[in-house]
Amino acid sequence: MSRPLSEQRAEFVVDDAVAYFNTAGLSPMLRTVREAAERALDRRSMPWTITAQEWFADVEELRASVARLMGVAADDVALVPSSSYGLATVARNLSTKPGDRVLVLADEFPSNHYTWQRFTRRTGAELVVVARDPGQRWVDAILGVIDERVAIASLPNVHWTNGALIDLERVARALHDAGAVFIVDASQSLGALPLDVAALLPDAVVAVGYKWLLGPLGLGYLYLDPKFHDGEPLEENWIARVGAEDFSRLIDYQEAYQPGARRFDVGERSNFQLLPAASAAIRRLLDWTVAAVAATLRARTDEIAARVRQAGVPVAADDARGPHILGLELPAPSILRVTRALRDARVVTSLRGSSLRISPHLHNDARDVDRLLEVLRAAL
Ligand SMILES: Cc1ncc(COP(=O)(O)O)c(C=O)c1O
After folding, report:
1. How far is the CA of 25 from the centre of ligand 1 (A)?
2. Is residue 50 part of a domain?
3. CA separation for the pair 213, 373 (Å, rounded)
4. How far apart are CA 191 and CA 158, in angstroms?
């Protein structure tokens, strides 16, 4: 376990009038990311300075740093605009036979649910929505339904509504034994919770960039096991084909694609406005290390959890939740009162289902936590 990082608030754009605990919704912004975005816009406003080679260079730099963060090869990463695009790409390249099942979690993020709903409606496979009993851990609920009928499972490693942890190591073993395709939606964890791709051996991992990766909207990432690299992309974009570097010969149409997972890159991936901002964010995470970010957020959420428990609100056991998201199951009569009081005090959290989701990052300091607790205690 890494040691928590020291105070990092100065690195972020913050407003002291606001206590912001909604990284799971939309990340706070690093100053370096904002500066990179401003420089990027300056560069984009002078197209005559942009060389043909630059249509590729930023993309490959970002691909390489995301790959480092995931602990995979750069060739295995595609740039996608959203998790739904990444999941649709995976779904496009899978088939099932009658009787096959596709697993998703209850109350899953809609992009993950709808993708497999559409897939199962199209293919005739059965969509199995795994629910857990009160007090049950997700891993036990999931293991309870894995058998040889399961062909695909598309799962997160923490539940997006409340940070409940899903022990993917045990799930992965069972899925591999069943011969199922294993997809991870790491949108709510990549950057804040180490993901061991080499140990889990997922077929695909998708993650958005604007939450725990501290980057802009519109840039997410898809890891694809090399066995899928010959697959069919959602679209046929010029830059995904071999030889695209030579702009003068683009109408010499090519059958072959760029190597690795690059064929799955979204069209117009050379987004001069966004790429440098995303890269700056990933560079900072790599410098901090994800393990150290996780340890820092763990200390923060443990402290909040302990103080919330003292105030009489039950919180999931610390080892049953991720380090970075805390979900409070507030008693129904107080939910409205609490959310209104938080809003009035400019303490930004989010309500997802019945869970009040608190998702800090390294910009939060002790005063933010005091303010959150003060409002909670008064409104409960
Ligand atoms: C688990 C999870 N996946 C994906 C997303 C975003 O999905 P998309 O990129 O399809 O908009 C979110 C956003 O909250 C999320 O919580």
Report:
1. 9
2. yes
3. 27
4. 13
Same domain, 215 and 327: no
Minimum-distance ligand 1 atom for the alpha carbon of 25: 14
Judge if 271 and 195 occupy the same domain. yes
Look up the pTM and report it: 0.97
What is the tally of structural domains in the chain? 2
Contact status, residue 183 vs residue 153, Cβ threshold 8 Å = yes
Q: Do 271 and 194 belong to one domain? A: yes
CA dist 90 and 204 (Å) reads 7
Ligand 1: which of 23, 104, 109, 114 to mutate, most ligand atoms within 8 Å of CB?
Answer: 109
Q: Are residues 241 and 179 in the same domain?
A: yes
For a mutational test of ligand 1's pocket, the pick from 79, 160, 187, i.e. the residue with the most ligand atoms closer than 8 A to its C-beta, is 187
The pLDDT value recorded for residue 317 is: 84
Digit-coded pLDDT (tens) for 236-248: 999 999 999 999 9
CB atoms within 10 A of CB 178: 16
162 lines ligand 1 (CB under 6 A): no
Bridge partners of residue 129, in order along the sequence: 104
CB distance 115 to ligand 1 below 6 Å? no
Query: Does some domain include residue 363?
Result: yes
CB 69 within 8 A of CB 286: yes
Is residue 354 domain-shared with residue 228, that is, in the same domain? Answer: no
Q: What is the CATH number of the domain that holds 306?
A: 3.90.1150.10
**Claim to verify: residue 268 and residue 338 sit in the same structural domain:** no
CB 109 less than 6 A from any atom of ligand 1: yes
Q: How confident is the model at residue 48 (pLDDT cuts 50, 70, 90)?
A: very high
**Tens of pLDDT, residues 293-335:** 999 999 999 999 999 999 988 888 888 999 999 999 888 888 9
